[in-house]
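Homework help thread (please don't just give me the answer)

Our assignment gives two proteins as sequence + C-alpha cell strings and asks us to describe the second one. The first is just a warm-up. Here they are:
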Amino acid sequence: MVISKRPLHLFVAFAVAILPFFSSANTISDSTHVATETTHESPSEAHEAHGEGHGEAESLDKKDKVNAYIEHHLQDSHDFTFFSDEKEGKHYGFSLPVILFDKEAGVQVFSSSKFHHGEEIAEVNGNYYALHHGKIYKTNAEGQLNYDEHHHPTNEKPLDFSITKNVVSMLFTSALLLFLFIGLAKSYKKGPIPTGFGRVLEPLIIFIREEIAIPNIGEKKYRKYMGFLLTVFFFIWLLNLLGMTPLGINVTGNIAVTVCLALFTFIITQVSANKDYWKHIFWMPGVPVPMKIILMPIELLGTLTKPFALLIRLFANITAGHVVIMSLIAMIFVGKNLAADLPISLGLTLFISVIEILVAFLQAFIFTMLSSLFIGMAVQDHHHDEHHSEDMLGEHDNALV
C-alpha cells in the first residue's frame, strides 16, 4: 500500500515517533526544597545536596508521570485528548457523549466535558456523578467517594452505555469497511478487474480465501463463513493500524473487545458443529469406555480454551507492543542526557514501530486463521475421512500384493 509514493509504514512510524511532542509530558515543576539555614553543612555542600535531592525527586516525578501516561494510553476514555498544557491546566481535544442508566434517575445523557477529565463533578438533573479511573460513580454534591479495605469505591455505578473513544474507533472502522467493500462490489459491475482501492483489497480477499478458508474449512463449505472471516481480518487489522497513530487508540488492547471477537468465533463454531464434532467430544470413537469418561470433560474444556487462547493472544501482543513503544519514547524525558537519549530513543521507536506494522497484520491473520481452523474442525465430516483412509489402505495393500 502506497500513499503519496511513500511506504505507509514510514508515515505511521514517524507519527508514532513524534507522539510525545503532542502529549501531556511537559516540563515538570518540582516542589521539593531543601532548607540550608538549619543545617551545619557548608553552602557548597548544601547546594550539592539540594541538587542531588532535586534531581532524584524530579526523576521519580517524571517516571510516575510516564507510568501514568502509559496506563492512560492503554485504557479507554470518555474523550479524545490530543495534548495537554499542565502549566495552565488545559486539555486540547473534544468530548464524547455520556449515556448512563441510573436506577433512580433513569437515562442520563450529557457531554463528558462536565467531568473536565475527572477533575470536576458532573451535575445532571439534580444528580451528581464522578469519573474515577475511567469509571463513573454516583456521588453527592461534594463528590464524596467511599472506599472498601482494598481502596475500591463502593458508590453505586450506573450502567454506562457511553460513546467512548474505543466505540468511536470501532464505528469509524465499521463505516470504513462498508465504504471500501461496497466500492469494491460496485467496481465489479464495470468489469472483472476492480478499480481504485479495490485493486488493493482483491489480493487480500483472494489470499484469505485460498490460504485460510479453503485449506481449513474445505472447498464445499468455506463460502458460508467467508463473510465472517473477511470481517474479522479487516476489522482487527484496521483497528491495529489506528492504534499506531498519535490519537492513542488501543481498541484491540482492550480485553473486552478481544473477548467479544473470540465469543463470535466460539458461537459460530458451536452452532455450525455437526454430530461428528459432538461425538468426538462426548463419546470419542475407537477409545475404551473408561478413557471416554476421562477424556469427555477434557475435550469439553478444550472447546472453551480455544477461544480463550484467541482473545489472550490478540490482547497480550497488542498491549505489549504499545507498552514497549511508549517506554522507548519515555526515555527522552526520563534520561538526563538529552543529546544522547534522543537519537537512541527515536531510532528504537522507529524500529519497533515498523515491527508493530507487521504485528498489526500478523495478529489479524492469526486470529482469522485460528478461527477458520476451529470452524473447520467443527464442520468437517470425520466418517468420510475414515472411509477415505480405509480405501487408501486397501489400495495400498492391493498394490503390495
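The one we have to describe:
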Amino acid sequence: MKVKFGPVEENIVTREEFSLSKARDILKKEVIAVLGYGVQGPGQSMNLRDNGFQVIVGQRKNSFSWEKALKDGWIEGKSLFSLEEASQRGTIIMYLLSDAGQISFWPTLCKFLDNGNSLYFSHGFGLTFCEKTGIYPPKNIDIFLVAPKGSGTSLRRLFKEGKGINSSYAIYQDYSGNCLKKTISIGIGIGSGYLFETNFKNEVYSDLVGERGTLMGAIQGIFAAQYQILRDKGHSPSESFNETVEELTQSLMPLVSENGMDWMYANCSTTAQRGALDWWKKFRDATLPVFRELYHEVSSGKEAERIIKSNLEKDYRNKLEKELKHLRESELWKVGTTIRNLRPEKKES
C-alpha cells in the first residue's frame, strides 16, 4: 500500500495485505539455504522453519555456531550442512555471513549460483561496496534483501511473542520477473512487522550511520559523558547509572516507542518538560556536525574500507576482545551489571 509520511509517499507492505499462507504458497517449491549462523542467521532461519518454509542451514563445521545450530534443532545431514553443501542444495541462498565472511566465501559461493537461483542479503554492504568486497554477482539470478531493523535475537524473541520487527526490502536484480513476490514472502516468513521499500545503497548508508550514531556509537558516548560528569560532581555510582541508563532503557524508551516523544514531553513533570524542550536543540546542534562527518565517511566508502581492512587482520578477534573488555570493565558497565542483577525479575528467576 501507499502510505504518506508528510509530503513523502512510501511503499509499505503489511501482514494483513500479504498473508503468511500466500508467502508459503509462493515459496512452496523453494529450498531456502541460510548461510551463516551468527547474528541474523538463527532468528531468520528458525522463524522461517516455524512458519512452515523449507529451510536448511549452512555453517562451518565444528565451529561455535555449528554447535549452536545443533542445539537449536537443526539436524546434520538433513537440515544442517557445510556452507558448500547448503549452497549447492539451496534455490534461495540467504547470505547471512558477516561482511568479512561474505568476502572470504564469495569465490566459492558464486560457483553454486545456478541460472534462476536467488541470492538474498540482509545488508547492502557487499554489493554497494563491490569494488572493495569483490562481490560481483551473475546476471541470471534474482538478488534482493530484507533487513530487519533490529538484532536477530530481538527478531526471534518478538516472533515468539507474536510480534515483529519492521524490515526494509529492496530489489537489486529481477531476473525472473517474480523477485518482488519472493522478497515480500521471505520478509513475511522471517516475521517482519511490516516492510518498507528502500534500495541497497540507502540500506547500507542508513545502517552504518545508525550503528555508529544513535543505535550504538553515539548513545554509548552520551552515556559515558553524562555518567562521568555526575560521578565527577560527587554522585554515587548507583544514582549516576540510574539517571543515565536505567531510567532511559527501562522506563522512558518503551513509552516513547508506544506513544512518541511529544507524548513523553506532555506526560512528564513540568520541570522535566521545560528542561527537555530548552536543551534538545543544543544537543542537536552539537552533534549535527559529527553526523555530517559520519555520513560523508560512509557514503564515500572510507568507512567500508576501514571495516574491511580491520576485519581481515589476523589478530582482529584479539583486538576486539580488548576493546570490549575495556567497555565491560569500565565503572559505568560494572555498575550496570550489578543493577541489572538487582531488578526484581532477576531476583525471582
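TA reply:
I won't write it for you, but here's a hint about the kind of observation we're looking for: The mean pLDDT is 94.
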